[in-house]
Amino acid sequence: MGKFMLSILALLAVYNRQNILEKTPAGQQPAAALGKPIGPPKELDADNLIQGRKVLKKPIWAETVERTGICLFSVKRY
Fold this sequence. Notes:
Elements: H1 2-33, H2 46-56, H3 61-68, H4 72-77
Helix pairs in contact: 2-3
């Protein structure tokens, strides 16, 4: 009976994973059509870091985020 239950739980896990893999691209397509970024947030490159440092001399977080395009947490961390 234990092996049977374990088999059912394993099948449910596989089904759930397949369901996620099918829904992810279906949700990304409309988001991409609206111009929303897909994937991990932008990382700091050399240009953004220099521009961010200029703005950070007067720490207005919203302006820094807007100018560099980097998320607020990354800006504060740097």
